[in-house]
Amino acid sequence: MLARYLPILALIAPIVFGDVQFTSPGAGISLTASGATFKISAAWKDSGDSPSLADLATYSLYLYAGGNAAGTYQQIGGPLATGESFSAGSTVSGSIATTAGADIDNA
């Protein structure tokens, strides 16, 4: 039933937040289900602001849906990546159940 995501992707490092610029997915994307899951990929690059991604070791990536204001969004499903190394690249893919976020506005 969940046919559209308005993802707010958060890149979280253990103590500091790296300053990334997501290059995909774009805002307002639509995902097509493959069976009981959606596959989503994210790509990013260093924004050029401090701290540099080269100064960071690992990241975790979560998918959120809802609005932009605090308290109007919530996490959908589990993390797309946990404890991944920045040195391994700047893309990640994961799957989300088609039922995830069914009760969230704008999901």
Automatic annotation (TrEMBL):
Q: Can you list the GO cellular component terms from the UniProt entry?
A: extracellular region
The record's Gene Ontology biological-process terms are: (1->6)-beta-D-glucan biosynthetic process; cell wall biogenesis; fungal-type cell wall organization
Q: Signal peptide: which range, if any?
A: 1-18
Question: Any idea which UniProt keywords this protein has?
Answer: Signal
InterPro entries named in the record:
Kre9/Knh1
Is Signal one of the keywords UniProt gives this record?
A: yes
Name of protein: Uncharacterized protein
